[in-house]
Design a protein that fits this description.
By secondary structure, the protein is α+β, with helices and mostly antiparallel strands. It contains 26 helices and 17 strands.
């Protein structure tokens, strides 16, 4: 199996045993790796209705056949499990040397189940697994954990760890690597914490088998083209942070818990300010266009990008980059998702403004950085009001009777684009396979340049096109999408790299079909775990429908509920799903998912 190592490492923390299993060639062909391999394992092996924080949940670290090969940003790893915040499928990708070394150690994936009797970390290499005591690591932040483990095992060890948020089962806790890299925003860090697993340390120096040694030459040619593209130099100066200025101009910059699409102090936290203040630039492994821009924070330095600047800045009414960076630094140290944290703090501010938090003795006003910082730490340690907010905005809003203030879909908080006047982006959020996240279909740039206010079949088709590429291609083989998205590196390079790695002469149509198969199986997983399905589960937050923008050139704009549902119907039809959002029998058969049909028929009525 050129490209794939052909081996899955399975670890049982309860029994303190491990076994190496052969990767089925048919599974590799049909699902490729990464997200595809993760959902296949969860569907096949996870009993329906498992508590996400029980020992029975499976935590999966999955690479793809391009992970660890070339320097076209292929240092990525998918971490997946049943999500504690949504109850459905959850995953995220993370740039980490642990993923590269996992492949060099001879594994395509690591599957962890059970629960350790005491705090544990895993040392993994090509020889096997050691179960090591993590008692002296428990309670440490992620940076201190990584520093200590690398001091023990060497700087050439890849480390993925959790912080206090994961230990305390904050439902949007993430896993962290290399200080500024985080992944698994639907609570993968909480799943890791529920297993008493503090960290995994991976070493590997073996060969990754490839079909054609020319892959390195192809990768170098791709990198050379990328560095010569017109947007490359500007990208290197500002990365994703320049999106602040773009979002302000387009009226999609979230402000005051997504009540507005513009923020008066945007220039104080935008890309130009990041470029002015930057002290360091870091990247994931094997990357030629770093996105990690480090700036001074109140407690040191921190890595910033657009998402955390918008959600910990404008969304909270904070117009000071060093303070925004400090909130991000706290999130990274504690191992919390910055997107959900920014949403949760924004929710708390709006709820406080409306007098809904009095029973918790909590008052937090817009722009109050100190209160936001203190509350972020309270969330990580589940203290006072923070204990409720650690559950996420869906659960907190029900407790406070403030559901219309919660900017979430299926329990997960939306990422940093206001959609009062962006119907396609709202659709992308609502139909994302993990809950609302821009990673799968960043359609808003295309939408702003085309039919801004339309609810068309073309928009639904564009969302699917991007989901196939971003959430299918890149999440399966596993690599970073930013060279294509941000500087325009042609997609043609990826089938070439895939063929050189695996020997498979794959076409875009093949990758698209794999993407459709993955999305259909993920949707089936959600239906099985929920025990039902309704199209209302694919609808964005009510605020975007009911509370128009009050400022800026798009003042008065809001989503239209009826037209949104027409567009959602187009989406379902184009995907081969019925009017409720359930894959049809014919679609499942076409995608080779016949085995899903009898399972779904226990919960829902399947249409032909």
């Amino acid at each position: 199996m050129a490209g794939w190592q052909g081996r899955i490492l399975r670890i049982d923390l309860t029994r303190r045993k491990y076994v190496v299993q052969e990767l089925d060639a048919a599974v590799a062909r049909d699902f490729i790796g990464g997200r595809g391999l993760a959902i296949k394992i969860l569907w096949d092996e996870l009993p329906p209705g498992v508590d996400p924080l029980s020992p029975h949940n499976k935590l999966i670290f999955a690479a793809g056949p391009l992970t660890g090969l070339t320097n076209v940003n292929m240092g990525k790893l998918v971490v997946a499990a049943k999500s504690p915040i949504t109850g459905g499928y959850g995953d995220g990708n993370i740039g980490a040397w642990a993923g590269v070394y996992m492949r060099r150690a001879g594994y395509d994936a690591i599957v962890v189940e059970g629960k350790a009797e005491r705090p544990t970390y895993l040392y993994i290499d090509g020889k096997g697994v050691q179960f090591l005591d993590a008692s002296d690591l428990w309670g440490l932040n992620t940076w201190a954990t990584e520093d200590k483990l690398q001091k023990m095992h060497g700087r050439d060890a890849g480390v993925i760890s959790i912080g206090p948020a994961g230990e305390n089962l904050v439902k949007y806790a993430v896993v962290v690597a290399q200080r500024g890299r985080a992944g698994g925003r639907p609570g993968m860090g909480a799943v890791m914490g529920s297993k008493n697993l503090k960290a995994i340390v991976v070493k590997g120096s073996g060969e990754i088998p490839v079909a054609d040694r020319a892959i390195n030459k192809i990768g170098l040619e791709a990198v050379q083209q990328g560095r010569g593209l017109p947007g490359y130099n500007f990208w290197m100066r500002q990365g994703t942070t320049s999106t602040v200025e773009w979002a302000q101009e387009a009226s999609v910059l979230p402000a005051y818990n997504f009540s507005e699409g513009q923020f008066d102090e945007f220039e104080k936290i935008g890309g130009a300010m990041v470029e002015k203040m930057e002290v360091d630039l870091k990247s994931c492994p094997l990357c030629f266009m770093p996105c990690g821009h480090w700036v001074p924070a109140e407690g040191g330095t921190a890595e910033v990008d657009y998402e955390n600047i918008a959600l910990l800045g404008s969304n909270l009414g904070i117009g000071d980059l060093s303070k925004v960076a400090e909130l991000n630094r706290i999130a990274d140290l504690m191992g919390m998702d910055t997107i959900s944290l920014g949403n949760t703090l924004g929710f708390a501010m709006e709820a406080s403004e409306k007098g809904l938090t009095k029973e918790y003795g909590s008052k937090i006003e817009w722009g109050d950085y100190k209160a936001a910082r203190d509350l972020a730490l309270d969330i990580a340690y589940r203290r006072g009001f923070g204990d409720l907010l650690a559950e996420g905005t869906m659960r907190a809003s029900k407790r406070l009777k403030a559901e219309e203030l919660a900017m979430q879909v299926k329990g997960l908080e939306v990422s940093a684009y206001d959609c009062h006047a962006a119907p396609a982006m709202a659709l992308a959020y609502a139909t994302s396979p993990i809950g609302p996240h821009h990673k799968d279909a960043w359609v808003i740039s295309w939408e702003v340049k085309t039919d801004r206010f339309g609810y068309t079949r073309e928009k639904a088709a564009k969302v699917i096109e991007l989901q196939r590429i971003r959430g299918g291609w890149f999440e399966a083989f596993v690599g970073c999408r930013l060279p294509w998205v941000e500087i325009g590196l042609p997609l043609d390079w990826y089938p070439k790299l895939f063929k050189a790695a695996t020997g498979v002469d794959a076409t875009p149509e093949y990758f698209n079909e794999v993407g459709d198969r993955i999305y259909a199986l993920i949707r089936a997983f959600w239906i099985r775990e929920y025990g039902y399905w309704s199209r209302e589960l694919d609808v964005p937050p009510p605020k975007w429908f009911k509370k128009p923008l009050t400022k800026g050139p798009l003042k008065g704009a809001h989503l239209d509920y009826g037209k949104y549902h027409e567009m959602l119907s187009h989406y379902y039809d184009l995907r081969g799903w019925d009017e409720s959002g359930i894959p049809r029998r014919s679609t499942l058969r076409r995608l080779g998912l016949d085995y899903v049909i009898p399972v779904l028929e226990k919960y829902v009525e399947l249409k032909d």
